From TrEMBL:
Residues 1-23 form the signal peptide. This is Uncharacterized protein. Residues 121-142, 157-168, 198-210 have a biased composition (Basic and acidic residues). Keywords: Signal. It comes from the Bacteria.
Amino acid sequence: MTRIHRAGLALLLTALVVPAAHAQTSPDEADQRLVAQMAKALTNDAPSQYELARMYEKGVGTPRDLRLAHLWYTKSAKQGYAPAVERLATWDADIEKVERAEKQRVEQEERARQQAQAARQAKERAAQEAKAKQQAEAEARAAARTRQQSEAAAKAASERAMRQEAAKRKQAAHAEPPATTPVAAKAAAEPAPVPAAEKPEAKADAEKAEFSANPCKGPSAKFMSTCR
């Protein structure tokens, strides 16, 4: 079998066997397989170097590492292993495509993160504005109630003062004496006239007239038998 035939057969076997093995390999098995491939690759076995490069490229049993993948592809290709040579022929274009896809993925994730953050901030801002509006409305209502209460209290105090003043005026009006005219005031200020003493003659005439009308009221009534 020629070298080219062997390379083609190896490529065919790799294409058929490796995907199935990767699909059915558990994490522990992948780790063990990586160790086994590494041991064979270090013996300068070209197919093992190619397989190890594929494991680094795909991230099987190890974190993805394109630098190490390219290194082992190169080692395998230097030995003329056809799958490694073909892989390196398209490596730059494929890596560029992968990097472009990775960049797009990162950018999409960043845009999605920024959009989610903006939406969250907008929601928080709307909630804060709504809360501030409710608080302002509550404060305005409280201020209006306080103002109404103050106005009502001032009105009640004013009405109470007016009633008290009216009651005082009414009480003062009842307590004051009636107003007098200047003539009456002058007459009240002048002393009352003293009656003049009666003349003796007039007094005697009056007593006589009274005795004639009623003999028992006179001074001599005690000597009269009819008045006893």
